[in-house]
Amino acid sequence: MALGFLDILPQPVVDFMTEVMEWMIDTAAGAEPWQQILVMLAGGAVPFLESYATSFVGVLVGIPEPLAVGAAVVGNMVCMLVLTYMASGARSMATRGRTSPEEEPSKRRRKVAAALDRLGVPGVCLATPLVLPTMFTAPILVGMGARRGAVIVWMSLSIAAWAVLFGFFGDWVSGWFM
Q1: What is the pTM of this model?
Q2: In the chain, how many domains are there?
């Protein structure tokens, strides 16, 4: 498969994403409007597809832009919120009664911490879709000690902004074919 940025992902992940994308296109194209909403909700909850790819596909198959974007955003946000609250609870339980870290952080954790220090929660949340799914990044940020409320607010803004951007892009691309 020659999709460039997907080359860094393991082939089973790429195959899964391709199958989900094909399912979304096939299912949404001939479905009733209420069924299209359900397809967009489900697509928004899939890592690496999330709100941006799902809203793009939804607009391309003919779903009205506000409906495609809105449903994709809701699906993505619900999944992100559940995972973020779970990570927050796990961190609370893991750090309860701890006074200091017991071991040196790994190289990867130091890199993420450096990016968090340099960009802050807003920068990391807004840039996240370029690198990792929001459903991975939000729990990681909370697990590293970022305030849960700030992560949720900024990640929600990021999810909505990327979905709107890709929805407009899908509308623009669909104009080529009509």
Answers
A1: 0.82
A2: 1
